[in-house]
Specification:
This protein has helices spanning about 1-30, 50-70, 70-75, 75-100, 105-115, 120-125, 130-135, 140-150, 155-180, 185-195, 200, 210-215, 215-230, 235-250, 255-265, 280-310, 320-330, 345-355, 360-380, 380-395, 400-410, 415-425, 425-455, 460-480, 485-490, 495-510, and strands at about 30-35, 40-45. By secondary structure, it is mainly α. It has one domain (about 1-510). The chain has a two-stranded antiparallel sheet with strand order 1-2. Helix 1 (about 1-30) crosses helix 24. The two termini are about 35 Å apart.
């Protein structure tokens, strides 16, 4: 138990440092993207600090008035309905005003799905095929084949609506997770209001890919694990394992959540509803952990076996090795744009340079990693600057590249006047400022929450599960391919903690005024 407490506080200290870095960066700078370009190239400019502070103060003042009038404590369900309705309305507005099309990897995979439906598996069987290089996408392709069987090929509205369902379920489950973590009506109500500011997340309803589609099953897995921790009922633990297996099938990045879930199973000391200690037997926890691993690896094996069967392959290609992503994640930005550790085609190039041979590519990538680590060792200050910059380019991007993606998915056809405004005009300016203010507000709340946790030296297992996942995402993408689009899936999980921190801040404001809310 002593080790567990020290471990938890160490994680919270690291998260606090990260939150303060992002908070400072969000106040001093802002990030924007060029429209009409092909690569993700964030541009930094000075923030309009007076306007940001004015808008931030106005939002906090409104929250203070709502708390003072007991709106949060008495209207939690109404605010939840309001937040979910806004999510639904905003996403539908984007879908039908922009009518997005799949682009980049999303477009490539859409073509592959259609080819597979027609019986052409050359993208997997040919040495230069996309899936020969990236076989981890097979789970998403199988999901796409299922979508085509149900809704027909190239039915992009159906894809968008399924993505909307995933976003809606994620936000609904976040409310339930918030309730399990804090059991506080006011915090849940504040989070419901905050949910109307996560436009970076809602904007991705237009980006047909595994990022959004995997969010609902991953969030369900987190919620069910929290229920298992509190009740000890195996059905919740097994449900968590099944849910995360589906999420991993669609998006392999969800394996970070698998690690967080397994670590939680090893360290939990569950709580009943009335805060009475309930020790879950190690045998039960081990059983759930083993079942989770069986589900995750079992669904991967099932997908591979299916495609071996339909293609006649004896084994699925190993593709470009994971170390090539790490080697790319440690590289400096180039003169053509991009950022430190972001995608620069290295993992493609090194694989082709080694005749698409996995083992040879692995050796080449390892040599690049060793050279880079030696450079970091020889230049420690440069090493620190590199990793801080890479961290901030991913986590201090209030847009998470979502506005540029709105441009990407809409540039292939004429849009409505509303769509043009949302992507290029006045609507876009409003959207960007909402996300800009929200990031500062969110990390102000998160930093306050973490300070509170460190002062009290106490954090629940339910909270720790979510914090572990966020921390894991931060560490993973410091070494893996960087992108603020990847950070988005962890950013959204900070909402409950931001709401808790804002409640603390509003309470301090009240104490300062010597009034009881």
């Amino acid at each position: 138990m002593k080790f567990k407490k020290v471990f938890n506080m160490a994680i919270c200290v690291c998260l606090l440092i990260g939150a303060l870095l992002v908070l400072g960066c969000s106040i001093l700078t802002t990030i924007s993207y060029d429209m009409g370009v092909e690569n993700d190239w964030p541009h930094y400019r000075k923030e309009n600090i007076p306007l940001l502070i004015l808008l931030l103060a106005a939002v906090i003042f409104v929250l203070y008035l709502l708390k003072k009038r007991e709106v949060f404590s008495k209207n939690r369900k109404k605010l939840l309905i309001l937040g979910l309705f806004f999510c639904l309305a905003y996403c539908l507005m984007l879908i039908f005003s922009i009518r997005p099309l799949p682009v980049n990897d999303s477009g490539t995979l859409d073509d592959i799905i259609n080819s597979f439906v027609g019986g052409d598996y050359s993208e997997l069987t040919n040495k230069d095929g996309y899936l020969y290089i990236w076989p981890f996408q097979l789970g998403y392709v199988l999901f796409g084949e299922g979508m085509s069987a149900i809704f027909g090929t190239k039915n992009y509205i159906a894809w968008d609506l399924v993505q909307l369902l995933s976003i809606f379920v994620t936000m609904w489950l976040l409310d339930k997770i918030c309730k399990e973590c804090f059991d506080d009506e006011e915090i849940c109500a504040i989070m419901s209001l905050l949910s109307m500011g996560v436009l970076f997340f809602y904007n991705y309803v237009t980006y047909i890919y595994g990022d959004i589609l995997s969010m609902a099953p991953q969030t369900l897995a987190l919620y069910l694990m929290i229920r298992f921790m509190k009740t000890g009922e195996q059905r919740y633990g097994l449900g968590s394992g099944l849910s995360i297996a589906v999420a991993v099938m669609i998006k392999t990045n969800c394996e970070i959540a698998v690690i967080a879930l397994l670590m939680t199973l090893l360290m939990i000391n569950g709580l009943k509803a009335k805060d009475e200690e309930q020790n879950i037997k190690p045998s039960k926890r081990i059983l759930i952990a083993v079942c989770m691993l069986i589900f995750v690896f079992g669904i991967k094996t099932a997908v591979n076996n299916h495609y071996k069967s339909v293609t006649g392959l004896e084994e699925i290609p190993k593709g470009s090795p994971s170390v090539s992503h790490i080697a790319m994640g440690l590289q400096e930005r180039d003169n053509d744009g991009g950022e430190d550790g972001w995608y620069n085609e290295y993992n493609y190039d090194v694989f082709h340079a080694n005749d698409n041979d996995t083992e040879r590519t692995k050796k080449a990538a390892m040599e690049n990693i060793k050279e880079r680590l030696q450079e970091f060792k020889d230049r420690p200050l440069h090493c620190g600057k590199f990793f801080v910059r890479k961290f901030l380019t991913q986590w201090a991007d209030s847009e998470c590249i979502s506005t540029r993606n709105l441009d990407l998915v809409s540039r292939h056809h004429e849009m409505s006047a509303l769509g043009n405004s949302l992507v290029f005009g006045t609507g876009s300016i409003v959207i960007k400022w909402v996300m800009n203010v929200f990031m500062t507000l969110c990390y102000l709340g998160v930093a306050t929450y973490l300070i509170k946790v460190l002062r009290n030296r106490q954090v629940s297992d339910a909270e720790m599960l979510m914090l572990l996942l966020i921390f894991g995402g931060m560490v993973f993408h410091e070494f893996w391919e960087g992108s603020s689009r990847y950070a988005m899936r962890y950013y959204i999980y900070q909402l409950p903690f931001a709401a808790c921190g804002l409640k603390v801040l509003l309470g301090l404001t009240n104490i300062h005024k010597l009034k009881k809310i």
